[in-house]
Amino acid sequence: QVQLVESGGGLVQAGGSLRLSCAASGRTFSSYDMGWFRQAPGKEREFVAAIRWSGITYYADSVKGRFTISRDNAKNTVYLQMNSLKPEDTAVYYCATAGGSNWPSVTNYDYWGQGTQVTVSS
């Protein structure tokens, strides 16, 4: 069983930055592949980024070059640094543990956090 708790969301103006954190329970965090997803009102949950236990990263085209996923295994935490934010980035952001390698697929992920709201004003 893994528990995930996201934090760091908030209200920011377009062009601004936020850093999201996802704290995980469990002694084997360093062996997990992790992902970030987001869900805007009325839309399906969509893939944002993933990071393997080895540090290899994957990004959705919509965030490539603006967002950076990273992890600190000593702190059992994965981060999402979001720069050059746009109003269309507004969503609830979730972190999750990956059970396989189909990174963009929601069904690839086992455990989910409760989400943190990010709102970008124009």
Could you characterize the architecture of this molecule?
The protein is mainly beta and 122 residues long. The chain has no helices and eleven strands. It has strands spanning 4-7, 10-13, 18-24, 33-39, 46-51, 57-59, 67-72, 77-82, 91-98, 109-112, 116-121.
- Apparent shape: globular
| Quaternary | single chain
**Per DSSP, what share of the residues sits in E-state strands of 2 or more residues?**
over 45%
Average pLDDT for all residues: 95
Proportion of helical residues: under 10%
Query: What would you call the structural class?
Result: mainly beta
How many strand segments?
11
How many helices does DSSP assign?
A: 0
Low-confidence stretches: none
Radius of gyration: 13 Å
Ends distance: 40 Å
**Biggest pleated sheet:** 7 strands, mixed
Report the order of strands and helices. EEEEEEEEEEE
In short:
The protein is mostly beta strands. The protein contains no helices and 11 strands.
Task: Describe how the helices and strands are arranged.
Blueprint: E1 4-7, E2 10-13, E3 18-24, E4 33-39, E5 46-51, E6 57-59, E7 67-72, E8 77-82, E9 91-98, E10 109-112, E11 116-121
Parallel strand pairs: 2-11
Antiparallel strand pairs: 1-3, 3-8, 4-5, 4-9, 5-6, 7-8, 9-10, 9-11
